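TASK: fixed-backbone design
INPUT:
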């Protein structure tokens, strides 16, 4: 079978790498892919010169090349309706429909659904006009809040505020200066929850749910969870923060009611349902939903997955997850450290040659997944803010961390940097 993976980030490199290991797969096409998918050795992976926003081109390519399954990685093509367009042409696609993907595409829709489905989450208010949001903030007590752009903003449209002044600045950035474009046409001011964050991802066909091992992302740019929010500076899996009893509670109070409510709303959900959670003293509360694998959570998850991922993807598409049974996992934890370009999450320079990738690839139980890279004249260069996800398995979380940072130490380019404390918080749980 031929499989098309849509996207060009670290998630898509990890997906292509895992899918290509299936004995049932002849070729994995990646559109557009990156330098990592272009240089994989020993696996049948090919890049395709098509943007993930080119819906018509992707549909035509899948038809012309007898693609048996298309796996859509990023949120933007999902919320734009790529899965619907593929299915309309009789093609099989993994991912939610446009209507279901609104769960990530609109934070207002998500919060309203959580309220109606009685899923625990923070209190919130929605605003269409900057003046109304300003009035609301000035009339309430000066206490911490979170200000969010409604639409997609590449993981950066969430601003955590300690004071009213910071919240007013956030409203100006989102609704006044339109820092995130049309994503800020509506905004949410939300109760700031206290606790520890965790990511619980599940695969669902709209009826059955398979919950994946819990992971923990590191969103703030700098050590000690300081600095601006990013798309994610590293992740590890599993996290001891979420034990078996808490995971069961998340399934019962969060995942199941959400899937049922989406079905009742005539937006049946098939694909990856990613719950970003705050583990509070009152229990787990939903911060947001994503409708695809997290990046970088995907990398340690897929490093640990031993089952054939194609069986899982096809069972989801065909609505027969209940027949699949459980998944097999490597018992060892995995840690992913993101290496970024100087200046990220702000402006950064591109085009610097990356060295040391071959050296890192020789390390045992280490895999370097590419995100913002491109192959130019035979050299790998940085083209994005988040550039590489250096991922390692180890007998303990500390051992996995050591392996990942050994890989990081091998790699260099002008301005490269990373957080030094990925997975350290696991030692405190």
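OUTPUT:
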């Amino acid at each position: 079978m031929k499989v098309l993976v849509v996207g060009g980030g670290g998630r898509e490199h990890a997906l292509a790498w895992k899918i290509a290991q299936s004995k049932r797969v002849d070729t994995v096409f990646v559109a557009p892919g990156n330098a990592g998918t272009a240089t994989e050795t020993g696996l049948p992976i090919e890049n395709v010169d098509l943007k993930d926003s080119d819906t018509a081109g992707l549909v035509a390519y899948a038809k012309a090349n007898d693609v048996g399954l298309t796996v859509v990685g990023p949120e933007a093509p999902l919320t734009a309706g790529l899965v619907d367009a593929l299915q309309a042409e009789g093609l099989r696609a993994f991912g939610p429909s446009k209507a279901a993907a609104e769960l990530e595409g609109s934070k207002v829709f998500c919060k309203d659904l959580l309220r109606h489905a009685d899923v625990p989450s923070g209190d919130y208010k929605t605003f269409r006009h900057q003046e109304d949001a300003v009035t609301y903030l000035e009339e309430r007590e000066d206490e911490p809040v979170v200000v969010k752009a409604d639409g997609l903003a590449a993981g950066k449209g969430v601003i955590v505020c300690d004071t009213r002044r910071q919240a007013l600045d956030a409203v100006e950035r989102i609704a006044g200066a339109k820092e995130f474009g049309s994503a800020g046409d509506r905004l949410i001011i939300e109760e700031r929850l206290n606790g520890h964050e965790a990511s619980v991802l599940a695969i669902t066909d709209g009826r059955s749910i398979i919950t994946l091992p819990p992971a923990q992302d590191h969103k703030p740019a700098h050590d000690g969870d300081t600095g601006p929010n990013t798309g994610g500076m590293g992740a590890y899996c599993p996290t001891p923060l979420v034990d078996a009893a808490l995971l069961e509670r998340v399934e019962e109070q969060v995942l199941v009611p959400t899937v049922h409510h989406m079905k009742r709303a005539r937006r049946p959900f098939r694909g990856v349902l990613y719950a970003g959670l705050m583990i509070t003293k009152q229990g787990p509360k939903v911060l947001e939903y994503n409708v695809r694998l997290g990046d970088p959570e995907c990398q340690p998850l897929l490093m640990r997955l031993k089952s054939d991922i194609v069986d899982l993807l096809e069972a989801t598409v065909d609505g027969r997850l209940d027949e699949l049974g459980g998944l097999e996992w490597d018992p060892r934890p995995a840690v992913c450290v993101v290496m970024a370009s100087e200046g990220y999450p702000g402006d950064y320079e591109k085009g610097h040659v990356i060295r040391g990738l071959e050296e890192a690839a020789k390390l045992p139980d280490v895999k370097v997944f590419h995100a913002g890279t491109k192959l130019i004249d035979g050299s790998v260069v940085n083209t994005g803010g988040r550039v590489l996800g250096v991922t390692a398995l180890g007998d303990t979380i500390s051992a996995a961390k050591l392996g990942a940072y050994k890989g990081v130490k091998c790699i260099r380019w002008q301005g490269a940097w990373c957080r030094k404390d990925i997975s350290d918080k696991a030692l405190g749980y």
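COMMENT: The chain has 14 helices and 22 strands.
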